[in-house]
Input
Amino acid sequence: TPDAIQADVLVLGAGPGGYTAAFRAADLGLRVVLVDKGDALGGTCLNVGCIPSKALLHAAKVLTEAEEMSAHGIKFTKPSIDLDALRNWKSNNVVDQLTGGLNQLAKQRSVQVIQGKGTFISSHELKVQTSDSATQIIKFTNAIIAVGSSPAILPGVPNDPRIMNSTKALALEDIPERLLVVGGGIIGLELGTVYDALGSRITIAERSPTLMKGSDKDVIRPLHRRMSKRFEKIMVNTVVDHVTPKEDGIHVGFSGDNNIEDEVFDKVLVAIGRKPNGHLVGAEHAGVYIDERGFIPVDKSMRTNVPHIFAIGDVVGNPMLAHKATHEGKIAAEVIAGHTTEFTASVIPSVAYTDPEIAWAGITENEAKERGIGVEVASFPWAASGRAMSINRTEGMTKLIFDKYTNQLLGAAIVGTNAGELITEAVLAIESSIKAWEIGQTIHPHPTLSETICFAAEMNLGTITDLY
Ligand code: FAD
Output
């Protein structure tokens, strides 16, 4: 066995949380070792999450927009899809470029990267299985646990190559004729959007009463309506009873609002959520507390119950989002370097990159009702936006939620094309305690979709004079 490696900061897991923490700690002068068992840096997000899914969603958007312009004078012939070329573009041109870039960034900062599965063996030591026969011990002063999460599995579902999780769906093996997506959350709906555009007939089964559970109904409606037109079937309040692989396909039974004893699909995508990996890294040997679900609780400085061990990203709790992980990664690194930093952000935006996109930040109308917070809601329909009309996408809506008494912006939801790019203005406004009149008095460029934020604020103020 080689000698132990010494680290000021050991970072376990090189996803968005881990690599950000490692780079920040190195920039602050600390000796950093970054351990990941994957073939490439970047974690779930870069390898099998955010980035490859967005590449495929871009392809989907090109396909559907071309198809929809046929009603307005531009006709294309039916697209031919070269799945190998599409897969290569996603993997080689997009994912590999980004993960390769991370190696460069690590090298520039002298972050020592070690590939292998890490397990804590004490409060100051990690053992890494670097190959079948070799291990490496890392002795650390501080550690940051950034081991992320894994796809949750549907209990009782047998192993079959036709039953996929998100990673397998992103591998784009083929285009199934009929695809069942179990789970109407962000990941299921995004991947359903991709396969729909590529030519699959999509059925969605979601156990709660709406897609994207917890969101306001009026925000989901434009997406639900558009998906209903494109997809074969969307079933809410519907539970999957059995999934039985047979030679002629995957037989599935449903109950709830839809009682179906047996329906046959070519493939099934299970996208019912993700489970934190807290129980899988021996953190208990370091004295770190892990809750029964696998989350590692932390304080505002991202510290676990063990003062020199920190945790960040998906493994510390919801929402499981890359930008939350990176934000937390910076905090942990800075605290270790001796800065007084805390997690103080009041909102974490979420985006579903479906078509249309849904983006939201801060309080929802439902939540305001539940918590008894007095709010005023202003919803601006994109049918009255010149920009939305000129790009043939009028189904959207911009909804702002203001405090009834102070008129301060507390929440925002945008549904429509590019909603994910638009939400940041609302995020900044919420973080900055901005009031409706301040948004109304901010000059927005015309014609843009961003104007809908200004228009919604003016609606709230009763000062809106002209539309379009
Ligand atoms: P991860 O990215 O999960 O990284 C954890 C790393 O730890 C992995 O590389 C793993 O190999 C490593 N690891 C685990 N255990 C060990 C061990 N014992 N030893 C060594 N290494 C270990 N989020 C968004 O914000 N926007 C999106 O658009 C988005 N799209 C998504 C699409 C899909 C299909 C999926 C699945 C997720 C998506 N997410 C998205 C979520 C996002 O990927 C995660 O929130 C993010 O990756 C979490 O970062 P992390 O650093 O906590 O962990």
Remarks:
- The first strand starts at residue 5 and ends at 12.
- The two ends are 71 Å apart (CA to CA).
- The first helix runs from residue 16 to 27.
